[in-house]
Amino acid sequence: MVTPEKEHAEHDAAVARIQTGLTTVSRRGSARLRRSNQTLSPVDHSMLEYIRSHPGCRAVDMATHFELNRSTVSRQLAALTRLGLMAVVDPESTARSQALRLTPEGEAALETSARLLNEVLIERLADWSNEDLEAFAEMLDRFNAAMGEN
After folding, report:
1. SS3 readout for 27-42
2. Which of 51, 71, 77, 106 has CA atoms 20 to 30 A from the CA of 64?
3. What are the helix (H) ranges across 67-103?
C-alpha cells in the first residue's frame, strides 16, 4: 500500500526531475544558439515572438504576459530597439501607450531563430512516434495553461 507520505515524496521527486529537465533544455538551447552565432537570445526570441503574435501590443501587455516587472521589459525592449529589431508604431504616442511592431530586420532575425530552434526539435524528436509527440504537446499545453495565458 502506498502511504500519503510516499506518494508525496514520489510527486516531489518527479517535480524535481521535471525542473532538471527544463533547465537542461534551456541551457542546451542557449548554448546551441551561441554556437550558431545566432543573435537572438531565448529572451529576445520570446519577446519578438510575442510582438509578432500580438500586433500592437504594449510593454505593459508583455510584462503581464511574462509576469515581469515593467522596468525589466522596458530594458529588454530598449535593447531590441537599439538592435533595430523592433520599433513603436507611433513614436509620438505616450510611453505608456506605445504599440510595438517588428522591423523587417526583427522579422528576419525571428525567422532565422525559429528555423534553428525548429531544426533542433526535429532532430531531437525524430524517433518519437506521432502519439508521443501529441501527448507531449498536450502536456506542454496543460503545463502552460496552469501557469496562466498560453
Report:
1. HHHHHHHHHCCCCCCH
2. 106
3. 70-82
The Cα 79–Cα 75 span in angstroms is 6
Count CB neighbours of 49 within 10 A.
Answer: 15
Residues 6+ apart with CB under 8 A from 103: 84, 85, 86, 87
C-alpha to C-alpha distances, 93 to 33, 79, 97, nearest whole angstrom? 35, 20, 6
SS3 at position 125: coil
Whether the CB-CB separation of 81 and 87 falls below 8 Å is answered with yes
Rounded Cα gap, residues 72 and 17, in angstroms: 29
Q: Is 95 exposed, middle or buried (0-12, 13-18, 19+ CB in 10 A)?
A: exposed
Q: What is the pLDDT of residues 39-63, one digit of tens each?
A: 688 889 999 999 999 989 999 999 9
- Residue type at 135 in one-letter notation: A
Spatial distance between the Cα atoms of 49 and 76, rounded to a whole number of angstroms: 13
